[in-house]
Write a structure and sequence with these properties.
Layout: E1 16-21, H1 36-50, E2 55-60, H2 68-73, H3 78-102, E3 107-111, E4 120-121, H4 124-132, E5 136-140, H5 150-161, E6 166-170, E7 175-176, E8 188-189, E9 191-193, H6 194-199, H7 207-215, E10 220-224, H8 230-235, E11 242-245
Parallel strand pairs: 1-2, 1-6, 2-5, 3-4, 3-5, 6-10, 9-11
Antiparallel strand pairs: 7-8, 10-11
This protein binds uridine-5'-diphosphate.
């Protein structure tokens, strides 16, 4: 749970943001699926930013349940496997909606693949209206198309919603030149350009997502979601993180 001190609304320059987390971030110490305590902890992180008056979009991956590439490696037809991956993201979105509503945050799940009994279909103007009403909007089912990722979905929806930036919550506090878990001398970037991230395969996001951000001048901010109060701190410009933008 966040223990950050109260912060006035003016402490953040962000009016509307996209938070992208991987499905694996919801696993906690488990090897598969969802850890309810972890989901609840991330919901608190989201609440602490929502309390600042920031409008929040979310995209959650599905890798804790199913990845299309893993399915196709086992012989499944790729597009079918990708649809299974997209369905996995809907499950994660519903789990996050439940955790957010338990702590009093109104939340809408909007799916790129219509499933009317479960959640709303994606209608851009309706999603914007939810945000204006201070509801957290979770975009599920990725882009709705196989061969894409939820990083690309996050960048796409962030552009459509007019978000100031995509915040990518990970297990490390930014972008490194090498894997910091394997190489203790790995160097963290404070700021890196889209082009350098692409050229050096820095593992920020996949190339499609980075290119979409670059072409629309959308900054990507990579930070650690494991740090309690981290998301709120980063929005106020505190803590360690990496900004990926045109200047680098
Ligand atoms: N996926 C897809 N199209 C999209 C988004 C996701 O086909 O627009 C599928 C793809 O199979 C992917 C899976 O959904 O492997 C889960 O998404 P992702 O791998 O991005 O999840 P994360 O790694 O963030 O948990």
């Amino acid at each position: 749970m966040s223990t950050a001190a109260p912060m006035p609304e003016s402490a953040t320059k962000y009016a509307r943001v996209m938070l992208k987390i991987s499905g694996e971030a919801l696993m906690g110490d488990r090897a598969y699926g969802l850890n309810p305590q972890t989901v609840a902890r991330i919901a608190q992180e989201v609440k602490s930013v929502h309390d600042l008056g920031v409008e929040i979009c979310m995209v959650i991956g599905g890798g804790n349940i199913f990845r299309g590439l893993a399915g196709s490696a086992q012989g499944m037809e790729r597009t079918t496997a990708d649809y299974m991956g997209m369905l996995a993201t809907v499950m994660n979105a519903l789990a996050m909606q439940s955790a957010l509503e338990q702590i009093g945050i109104y939340t809408r799940v909007i799916s790129a693949i219509p499933m009317d009994q479960v959640c709303e279909p994606y209608i851009r103007r309706r999603a914007v209206r939810h945000l204006e009403k201070k509801r957290v909007v979770i975009f599920a089912a990725g882009t709705g198309n196989p061969y894409f990722t939820t990083d690309t979905a996050a960048t796409l929806r962030a552009n459509e919603m007019g978000c100031a930036a995509v915040f990518k919550g990970t297990k490390v506090d930014g972008v490194y030149d090498r894997d910091p878990k394997k190489f203790p001398d790995a160097k963290r970037y404070d700021r890196v350009s889209y082009d350098e991230a692409l050229e050096k395969h820095l593992g920020v996001m996949d190339a499609t997502a980075i290119a979409l951000a670059r072409d629309n001048h959308l900054p990507i901010i990579v930070f650690s979601l494991d740090e309690p109060g981290g998301f709120r701190g980063i929005l106020a410009g505190q803590g360690t993180y990496t900004t990926v933008d045109a200047k680098g």
